[in-house]
Input
Amino acid sequence: MMIRVMYSDGRFDMVKPMMLDNLLDQQTVTSFKRNTGWAVVGRDQVRSSGRGNYRGTERRLQ
Output
């Protein structure tokens, strides 16, 4: 599964979920696509740096 992301410079890309975790840690993406719409970093709830302990539903879908 690939996830659509938008970088801080306005570029779009498709990345794997593990890469999205890295990009969120590096603060290089401003938003990513969930099956419910775009999740905006800083506005919407996203996984914290303790992502390995996340117990919720996977929402990062195309």
